[in-house]
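User: Teach me something about this protein's shape.
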Amino acid sequence: MIKTKIASLLLVGAMLLASCQPAKNETKQENQKPNVVVIYLDDLGYGDLSSYGATELQTPNIDALANGGVKFTNGYASSATCTPSRYALLTGVYPWKNKSARILPGTAPLIIDTAQVTLPKMLRTQGYQTALVGKWHLGLGTGHVNWNEAVSPGPNELGFDYAYYMAATQDRVPTVYLENGMVEGLDPNDPIEIDYKNNFEGQTSGKDNPELCEMMWHHGHNSTIVNGVPRIGFMKGGEAAKWSDIDMADHFLAKAQDYVKTHKDQPFFLYYAMQQPHVPRTPHPRFEGKSGMGPRGDVILEADWCIGEFMKTLEEEGILENTLIVFSSDNGPVLNDGYFDDAVEKLGNHTPAGPLRGGKYSLFEAGTRVPFITYWKGTIQSGVSDALVCQMDLLASLAKLTGTEEASTDSEELLDVLLGKSADGRESLVIEATTRTALRKGNWLMIPPYNGARKNKQVNIELGNDKVFQLYNLKEDIGQQNNLAESNPEKLAEMLESFKAIRGESYSKTQKLELK
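Assistant: First, the predicted structure itself:
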């Protein structure tokens, strides 16, 4: 009897102890601050997702974020090109305030001051682990990089504890991965040499040896050939370190998944900067031909799959409900951006810009208005928001979320908007395309006069340039077909004063803001 009672007590104790143990996939992050993941695509247009109206492409995994979170219809990158948008995202500062925040060559120096406030620096003060996986393109070093030794300063000096990245873009040399400033897999007996002006003696190029190109260049991409793809810039050496283009999406995905698995027990910030659908579009054979619209459509499907796999990892590791996901793109779409890859010929009925006018490089809406989604399972209620938000606002908003003292930047604190609790977004936003700027305020967009071509003929995209003021009511004319500058001078004058208050009297090197 006594033995029976003892056995019963031991059994009850074991059951109680077991009930206190975490389940297989439970996280240790209870009562901790949420993880933050920014998933950033490259050249994805407002109309490239089925959740944003695409009918020829189906993107179920990204759609799951949009349908389960807040889908913003007025979400903006700061700029219509990549480097300045990434600068604004990480610093919360308008990129036109930094003259170096332009599309950079692969050898450009770091354009963010190491003393500057950044997203990862700010989150580190609150105990966050911080990581970059993917595309960087904000410069490295001081302008004289030796790729055969530690490259510094770079992402690690800006607050990233861990950084695994390509220096610039997939179409630029060096075509290698770096891990915390060191080129991965480099053979010291085969040093890397980079030159953006002159080729190295005895080296082939896309321009001189088109017969060696598996992907033919259209404009600008005719220098060193790597994996059959001609690039921007010349590279010699580093053969063992060169990446495999068709495996790049899988490679970055694996790094992002591994980071989650090994850092799940403490709050982390992960900047997952994917390369799709930027050129050269090199889908893995699993996705080749899947879209029916050439490599551009294929890599969008590939990106959607990668995001689905990444989300599965968060769920399997038991941290999905404690992770805020922000999904967006660095700028609008472009079809032919330097290679003949059937993006134009096989487009069919797909409209990458959706109902918007313009695209990458443009001051028209399709240049900067992009897919923008926030998702946090169990915390964010699903819905659609017309609030005006910008990626630049993440810094101030995440500062509020994590209890950080807000730094003085151009970032606006819109946490409740991002969480779907408020519809009161920004009042105004200065958008940028290369050196040109314009003003979005309320439902209106004002573009000041600019000299220069109205269309970039190489990429066949309207730039938004005109010799007169342009004024559009985006609520009534999302396609920007009716210029109301002459018929609504009062609104134009109001917009002009607001623009001056932010941008100043001069909005370009040669022109000042004045009505004639």
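Now, about its shape. The chain is about 20% helix and 15% strand. The longest helix spans residues 294-316. If you'd like, I can walk through any region in more detail.
User: That's plenty for now, thanks!
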